[in-house]
Amino acid sequence: MAPRGARGGGRSGSHIGGRDARDRNASESHNNAESQPSSSVRGSNILEQVPSNPSKRKFIEFDSEKEFTNQISVIRAIACILKTMFDGPWTSWKKVDKEHHDAMWEHFKGLYVWPEATDVLARKVWEDCMKKRFPDIMRRAREESLKLAKAANVNASLEGDLNLLKEYHPNWIKKEYWEKMINEQATLKRPPTGVELYARLHTKRSTQEYITPKAAKVKEAYESAMVAKFGDDTSCHPLLDNETWCDVSGGVKKGRIYGFGSVSDPASFLEGTSSTITSQEVVYERVRNEMRGEMDAKAAEMEAKHQQMREEMDAKAAAIDVKQQQIDAKYEAMEKMYATLQNMMRN
């Protein structure tokens, strides 16, 4: 049995509708897929089922704020949960939406139990493990895809054209997701265009929606203007056409260009015409370097806010625990008073 005062997940990972059925189907599909070549998995890839009796959950503790005591076996379980519940074109842990974050966490809580006082720490260590494990799992997925491609006599490599791997998705990733993931990885192997850089800075990571209506309108206006200026074949477009961008975004205002922040020399930005890709790469590099300071400052500010939120949540959790103890004490006092009254009435 789990130690007294321990806490884990009382639910069996049913945060997303039909989770139990999906777990069974995923287990069956991985049973059938074990005969296929794979270099990305060691041992079983079947999702461990949540025990029907909560007392059968495995007890875990923490060596520090970074690892579980039985880190190796827990990491294997975490990797298996991620693979079996993989349901999107996720190339990094940050791209996994909150719904699936929570569903995976609920399943993990159904498998393990830990000291009740370490609930917040348990979630933090679990998140850290997922974040650190994700790149290795993706690397193994690419290796598995490459192995399947070579088995089909496709002359592919991880350093070459990744598009050759689109047809050879790992058995635990849907083909449609794998194609999107390959497209993203192939794009990242070249310098991003101005629009791609702009999109990364002005869209919400969870939904990929633009943060403001203006941000979306500027992007659409720029793409339309580029097609009108250079034709439908976007591969022939420059990385960034400064003049066009300034036209659709409102120009330089107080030394700032909408979408790209402060520019130390707006005139040179405007003079960086689209005649050659090389000139655009120089302009892009200069703008990117000038933006890096602003981005670092924003990242530091966000981290400070997140830390403050974590501290506030911990403080609120502690206050709730104190309040619960007070309620329990009052309840016990009322029970004693009720018992005393009953005795007095009998006498």
TrEMBL record:
<feature type="compositionally biased region" description="Basic and acidic residues">
    <location>
        <begin position="17"/>
        <end position="27"/>
    </location>
</feature>
<feature type="compositionally biased region" description="Gly residues">
    <location>
        <begin position="1"/>
        <end position="16"/>
    </location>
</feature>
<protein>
    <recommendedName>
        <fullName>Transposase, Ptta/En/Spm, plant</fullName>
    </recommendedName>
</protein>
<dbReference type="InterPro" id="IPR004252">
    <property type="entry name" value="Probable_transposase_24"/>
</dbReference>
<feature type="region of interest" description="Disordered">
    <location>
        <begin position="1"/>
        <end position="50"/>
    </location>
</feature>
<keyword id="KW-0175">Coiled coil</keyword>
<feature type="coiled-coil region">
    <location>
        <begin position="292"/>
        <end position="319"/>
    </location>
</feature>
<dbReference type="Pfam" id="PF03004">
    <property type="entry name" value="Transposase_24"/>
</dbReference>
<feature type="compositionally biased region" description="Polar residues">
    <location>
        <begin position="28"/>
        <end position="50"/>
    </location>
</feature>
